[in-house]
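Bench log. Compound arrived from synthesis this morning; before running ITC I wanted a structural hypothesis for how cobalamin sits in the protein. Inputs:
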Amino acid sequence: MVRGPGRPACNHKALISPRVGRGKRPPPPPAETSGFSLAKRKPGRCFRRVPPRPPALNKSGKTTFVNRQIDTNKGIGETPGRKEQIMHLIEKLKTLIIEGNLAQAPRATQEALQAGVDLREIIDQGLIKAMEVVGERFSSGELYIPEMLLSAKTMQASLNVLRPMIADRGIKAKAKVVFGTVQGDVHDIGKNLVIMMMQGAGFEVYDLGMDVPPEKFYQAIKTHQPDLCCMSALLTTTQGAMGKTIRFLKEQSVRQTVKVMVGGAPITEEFSAGIEADGYAPDAGSAVEKAKELLGIR
Ligand code: B12
């Protein structure tokens, strides 16, 4: 099987036990009560008059300090240390997402909202920045799939808290994407991971599922008019369906309306160029970066 440069050979064992096959780092610190502990948690209180300090949870993992320090009815817009408070709440949320603290992050999101932190700021500086860190750490081998999935799930849980407000405010997505695993292929874990990272980066993604025939990609492009069409394939026997899909899009005269990005374990830069895709990325972290590059987004 052909692989991208530097990618380890994958096997089922590697998915179940992500340490197998990489051998890059020593075993991680033990997981704490909830989620993975990537940033060290410190017990104790958090006073807004002692900035800057890393956001922290108290020993019981509760976030009582927010309620103690901030009058949520008043909002923090009128207080003198507003900037510090905003930064503190956002930093706390960011850390919870990086840690994959599914239990605490939605509440921290709610607290930031109630404290009057701007929605866009929560998304850009909290959610998106957290997933950028997660993506970088994953690409560098510092994080593994289960940890990244947990962070992505945590980000989605926070996003769900914000969703009604996003709809109300009509916040525009950075770009529209249609995404599917190609015809004949039912592997969708990688696709889902990339989708979550893209959503974390502010993209609006239409998930076409798996075993997607060229006609369905075409229909989705006609319907949603995306900026980017993404295809995933995990089998050497199905990677050919990517080229087939691109040819079909050409025949239907929609290929030029959309950028095409491909990925999946057997896909390489050379293969991508050979089928005339616009880009390829080896993993979920770099997929977001590549998508931004292709679409000229910063
Ligand atoms: C889980 C799994 C399955 C599950 C899939 C469940 C699911 N819902 O996805 C099941 C059990 C169904 C399955 C079935 C089969 N599988 Co399977 N499977 C795997 C396994 C163990 C993990 C794949 C995975 O999820 N990896 C984790 C994800 C996160 O990684 P990823 O998919 O590579 O995605 C990352 C990147 O590639 C990239 N990426 C992915 N997509 C995209 C898209 C874009 C646009 C971009 C930019 C990036 C990108 O980002 C992702 C995140 O970093 C692999 C072995 C392995 N370790 O890879 C075999 C593997 C892929 N399977 C294999 C085989 C042979 C099969 C079967 C044919 C077995 C059989 N005889 O029935 C069937 C095929 C079914 C079909 N028609 O598709 C082979 C493929 C060999 C080959 N060279 O073709 C592998 C490599 C196992 C092996 N070593 O033999 N499989």
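What the model suggests: The first strand starts at residue 176 and ends at 182. Confidence is low (pLDDT under 50) at residues 1-77.
ITC booked for Thursday regardless.
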